[in-house]
Design goal:
Elements lengths: L2 H20 L36 H4 L4 H6 L1 E6 L20 H13 L2 E6 L2 H10 L4 E3 L12 E16 L19 E5 L3 H8 L3 H4 L6 E5 L2 H9 L5 E5 H8 L6 E17 L5 H14 L1 H9 L18
Helix pairs in contact: 1-8, 4-10, 4-11
Length: 319
C-alpha cells in the first residue's frame, strides 16, 4: 500500500472512532453550555447538581392517578436515549444515562409517588409501542404535531423544535435557514421517525415548484452516525432539535455550527390515545414548575430559554 493511501485510511479510521464520542459531549457545571473535553479524549461528565433529589410525593396530585396504578406503584417508561441535553450516555452505553428528559420524568414520578420501570428503546419504536400496551408513557423529545395528535396524547414539559446545523466553516446556507428552498440541491441528514423526517418528506416538492433541484434526505438511526456523515461530507446539513444542535455546536470538538431555529414545537410525555394518566402527569409538571424544581432542571441542562409557563394536554401544533 502506498504511503498517501495509508495516511488517508488512517485519518478516516480516526474520524470514525472519534465522532461517536463527540456526539455524547455535554456541558459541565450547572447551566453551563460551554462543554469541554478532558485531556486524553474523555467526555465531560454530566452536570453534578441533582435538583430531583429533594422532590417528594404530593398526595393531591398522586390522587389523580388511576387506583390500579397507585396500588401497583410503578409505571413502564419507554425511553429513547439520543444525545444531550435530552438524554444520552455521558459515560458510555454500559453506564447510567442522563439528561433533561430523564430528570423531568424522574421528578414527575416522585411527585406522583410511583417508580419508573425505564426501558431503553429506539426513537421510532416508542409511539407504536404505546398503542400495543408495552409502555405506559414514552419520552424521547417527542414534538407535538397535528399528525401525531391523531393517535397520541401528549402532556407538555418543554418547548423545543426544529433547527439546522452544518460543518464549521461551511457558509453555503449563510447564518440561518428560514425557508426549505435554501436546501435545494443539498443532502440533509436527520433521524428516523422524527418530525424532521416528516417535514422534509412532506415539503419535498418545494424545490421543483421553485424550478430548482430537489434536496435529498438521508435518514440515520443514531445521532453519532449523522454527525459522522456530516464531517465526512456525505451530507451537507443536519436537521434536528434546536436544543440538541445548539448544545452540540457549543462543543468545540464537534466541529458544527448551529443555523438557528426553523420551527418551534412543544415537547411532551407521550401516551396512547385516551390514556387516564394525562391529567396526573400534567398536574405533576405544573407542581414542579410552581415549586421551582423545573427551573432548576432546565438551568442544569442549559435549556432555560425553552421553559414553559404551564403544562398542557394536547395543545395544537405551532404554526
Amino acid at each position: 500500500m502506498k504511503l498517501p493511501e495509508l495516511r488517508t485510511r488512517l485519518r478516516s479510521a480516526a474520524v470514525l472512532v472519534l465522532l461517536p464520542l463527540l456526539a455524547t459531549l455535554t456541558a459541565c457545571g450547572s447551566g453551563d453550555a460551554d462543554a469541554t473535553v478532558r485531556a486524553g479524549g474523555q467526555v465531560s461528565p454530566a452536570p453534578a447538581d441533582d435538583p430531583v433529589a429533594a422532590v417528594h410525593k404530593v398526595d393531591t396530585v398522586a390522587a389523580l392517578l388511576p387506583s390500579e396504578v397507585r396500588r401497583a406503584g410503578t409505571l413502564r417508561l419507554g425511553s429513547s436515549i439520543g444525545f444531550p441535553p435530552s438524554a444520552y450516555y455521558p459515560n458510555g452505553p454500559d453506564k447510567a444515562p442522563a439528561g433533561q428528559d430523564l430528570d423531568i420524568a424522574e421528578a414527575v414520578a416522585k411527585v406522583l409517588g410511583v417508580a419508573l420501570e425505564r426501558q431503553d428503546a429506539s426513537f421510532e419504536t416508542i409511539l407504536p409501542a404505546l398503542g400495543s400496551g408495552k409502555y405506559d408513557v414514552g419520552t424521547g423529545n417527542f414534538g407535538v404535531t397535528s399528525e401525531r395528535l391523531k393517535t397520541i396524547d401528549f402532556v407538555t414539559y418543554i418547548n423545543d423544535g426544529q433547527g439546522f446545523a452544518v460543518k464549521k466553516g461551511n457558509t453555503t446556507l449563510g447564518t440561518a435557514v428560514t425557508d426549505l428552498t435554501q436546501l435545494c440541491g443539498l443532502t440533509i441528514g436527520t433521524g428516523a421517525g422524527t418530525t424532521f423526517e416528516a417535514t422534509l418528506t412532506a415539503q419535498k416538492k418545494v424545490c421543483t415548484r421553485a424550478g430548482r433541484k430537489p434536496y435529498d434526505v438521508k435518514v440515520y438511526s443514531e445521532n453519532a452516525a449523522t454527525l459522522t456523515a456530516l464531517q465526512q461530507g456525505r451530507i451537507d446539513v443536519i436537521m434536528s432539535t434546536i436544543n440538541g444542535l445548539r448544545y452540540q455546536a457549543a462543543q468545540p470538538a464537534s466541529g458544527t455550527t448551529f443555523l438557528g431555529e426553523f420551527h418551534r414545537l412543544d415537547v411532551g410525555f407521550a401516551f396512547t390515545k385516551g390514556s387516564p394518566l394525562t391529567k396526573a402527569f400534567q398536574a405533576a409538571v405544573d407542581e414542579l414548575i410552581e415549586d421551582g424544581t423545573y427551573a432548576r432542571i432546565l438551568k442544569k441542562w442549559g435549556t432555560s430559554a425553552s421553559a414553559i409557563e404551564r403544562s398542557e394536554i394536547n395543545p395544537p401544533e405551532h404554526n
